[in-house]
């Protein structure tokens, strides 16, 4: 008859044996199929539900062993899209989810791009469709929650490269991008500068977007800014071609004479002051230029067709430069 101590030793040995067999079992791949099977784990999905999904997809042998393995990460597996294969062991899958080694997507918001170009990038990146994004970008309640008094997110999406995973909250994702831009205007120095110019953040972004589209030369932007400020001080229209193009949606085409007399909320030849809103994503340099115009008395500028401009103080001088550089600028 076995002594109590011997019985206890045997029980412990059996437990260790069973556990070790489980570990070995968990380290053996389901099979050796290396084809990728994407699995999306949504926010709030429990470990048992994840285990059931993986079992259903044929990626693990045992839900119980997966749940035991998850204890290494205190049962806290990270949501996202995972690229898994059947030749991965249960512990490899647990480790991947525990460390959050998800598939990462990329969205680039580029300076000078308008909301429609950004919508194409959003669509290609897989966050949402072009139409879904444009609808969200123009959602008044969504904009008001961020304190944006505008028709859309045009001009408010900060240029940068953004990385995200499949399970993101799309509204919060774009809200975070917009807040990066709004944060610029939290700076006390910038707020004082806007107050001295009689501008608000929306006007600053609008002017910055015009500067962004008019000049690709960083050193010129304060000069372009000065022209617009000077014209407004004199009660002149801003006569900014890119705003006309934006209003007619004639992107990628030369501006036409008929465009200049087509009334839109963005035609700065036909209205005085700012257009309705930004026409693209401005760079930080353009925002600073909008608030820091050069101390010059220029009222006109014209492209030299090399990325730079020539500036002038009166119409006669301006017309000479137009004749010199832009004789064939417009089409019928």
Q: Kindly, what is the distance between the CA atoms of the first and last residues, rounded to a whole number of angstroms?
A: 110 Å
Number of domains: 3
Counting helices, strands and paired strands, the structural category is: mainly alpha
The mean pLDDT is 89
Q: Give the low-pLDDT segments.
A: 1-7, 9-22
Number of helices: 15
**In what range is the share of β-strand residues?**
5-15%
Strand order of the largest sheet: 1-2
Number of β-strand runs: 6
Give, in order, the helices and strands. Answer: HEHHEHEHHHEHHHHHHHEEH
Radius of gyration: 30 Å
Helix content: 40-55%
Main pleated-sheet profile: 2 strands, antiparallel
